[in-house]
Design a protein that fits this description.
Elements: H1 3-13, H2 34-46, H3 57-63, E1 67-68, E2 71-72, H4 74-80, E3 87-93, E4 101-108, H5 111-124, E5 128-133, E6 136-141, H6 145-157, E7 167-171, E8 175-181, H7 190-194, H8 205-213, H9 223-233, E9 238-242, E10 246-252, E11 260-262, H10 273-286, H11 288-300, H12 306-313, H13 317-329, E12 333-336, E13 343-346, H14 354-357, H15 362-373, H16 379-386, H17 390-402, E14 406-409, E15 416-419, H18 422-425
Parallel strand pairs: 3-7
Antiparallel strand pairs: 1-2, 3-4, 5-6, 5-11, 7-8, 8-10, 9-10, 12-13, 14-15
């Protein structure tokens, strides 16, 4: 027996005892983001995969199996703490190799936020085809977004957290690679899972189970099969590389075809004169009333995404998206927050004092004024009072704290946010 075979035999024998995610974390409960835990529970409740409601962070983690003998496990750390060992390196390269890069960055954070940020990074830097039919345009990504999301979820579920090397996203001229450290299950191949012959082999069952409850994992053992089928349906070539250091999903980027391949505002340059004239008339005459109606709705109901706006106003989603683009081009509205939890807000002139204007604007200013007038509220209470998505409120709170405008006073259960200036004005 070789040294490697002996090592593998020992690891298999004690696999359950030495799983990284099951080891005690150095973090304590205060080191976790309670709002992220609450958001997870709310989502898991909404999709019908979690029966209990949120009471407090300790009880929740106990029920999820993320606390053992009174200690947090490593799984809880990467799922619900911004400061953990999970790191993702992202890069865009000029050609088909790694000789010249156009952009490079490193991300850190909890699993849920990183999944959103990685997806946004890829979709923002890939091409979208524009197809026209019945005078409506449809934007189609060169790689199916569902397949990308599935590959990203797999990369955090199945990575080897004992290995210090981080996950990687590499965007080349001809392909996109999503890499995670950690060997593929011994004796198996990706084809075994694509064809449905094998059951899921979980390296990190606690992390995978948590993502399953929030429906970030659709169902067990279906990840590679879903990626393959999405790409097959959309005629995108995909490969699965079993490397010595880890596993990589490779999406090959499509060449331009008879469809128009552009992004954003460049689309109008490819329209023929007949369609240009129609679109101009449609927007300038027939749609002005609805554009104004949509703008007023966003002013009065900030934080909604395009689909919920379309439902509320009973307007087709494509028309809503087109008019949203017009309002964005005119700098009347902006999208704030992550792709999953964010929404549209009106860009309004700030009217508060010069001191606040230096730090915040728009709805951030409104939240700041709320905290000044309502001392001691938590993020959830602020989100409910202002009707703003919780994750958006959390991000704005971090901004105000970094600018030393507000502070959290008290313990996690009974404390809340206060304006820092109150110590000078209230005493």
């Amino acid at each position: 027996m070789s040294a490697k075979e002996i090592e593998n035999s020992i690891l298999k024998k004690h696999a359950d005892k030495i799983k990284w995610e099951s080891q005690p974390s150095k973090k304590q409960l205060p080191g976790l983001n309670e709002e992220t835990v609450k958001t997870f529970v709310e989502k898991a409740n909404a999709v019908g995969r979690l029966e209990f409601r949120y009471e407090n962070i300790e009880n929740t983690l106990q029920k999820l199996g993320l606390i053992e003998n009174g200690q947090l496990l490593n799984a809880a750390e990467v799922l619900f703490s911004e400061e953990n060992s999970l790191e993702v390196q992202l890069a865009i390269f000029a050609g088909k190799d790694k000789l010249t890069f156009l952009d490079i960055k490193t991300l850190r954070g909890n699993v849920f936020d990183l999944l959103d940020e990685m997806e946004l990074y890829i979709t923002k830097h890939m091409k979208w085809r524009v197809k026209f039919g019945k005078l409506e345009r449809e934007e189609i990504p060169e790689i199916p977004v569902r397949a990308i999301r599935e590959a990203l979820v797999n990369s955090v579920c199945h990575r080897d957290y004992w290995v210090p090397k981080g996950n990687e996203i590499a965007i080349f001229k001809n392909r996109v690679e999503i890499y995670n450290p950690g060997d593929f299950p011994e004796g198996l191949t990706p084809q075994d899972f694509i064809e449905g012959r094998e059951r899921s082999v979980l390296r990190n069952p606690l992390i995978a189970q948590t993502l399953f409850l929030s429906k970030d994992v659709e169902k067990w053992g279906s990840g590679l099969k879903r990626i393959y089928e999405e790409c097959l349906e959309n005629r995108v070539s995909v490969e699965f590389w079993m490397l010595k250091t880890g596993f990589t999903v490779v999406f090959y980027r499509q060449e331009d075809d008879e469809s128009i391949s552009v992004s954003g505002e460049d689309v109008i340059e490819y329209l023929n004169e007949e369609i240009k004239e129609y679109v101009s008339k449609h927007i300038n005459r027939g749609a002005n009333e609805y554009v104004n109606k949509l703008h007023n709705y966003i002013i009065e109901n900030p934080g909604h995404n395009a689909s919920s706006i379309a439902d509320a106003l009973d307007i087709p989603l494509r028309s809503t998206e087109r008019w949203i683009r017009e309002l964005k081009d005119e700098s009347k509205i902006e999208f704030i927050g992550s792709k999953r939890a964010g929404g549209y807000y009106s860009k309004r002139d700030a009217t508060s004092s010069e001191e606040v204007n230096e730090v915040v604007n728009g709805d951030v200013k409104r939240m700041y004024n709320y905290i000044k007038n309502n001392h001691g509220h938590k993020a959830t209470a602020i989100a409910e009072a202002l009707d703003i998505p919780l994750r958006t409120v959390e991000r704005w709170i971090r901004k105000l704290k970094s600018e030393e405008k507000i502070e959290f006073i008290g313990n996690k259960k009974t404390g809340g946010y206060y304006p820092k200036e109150r110590s000078n004005s209230d005493e």
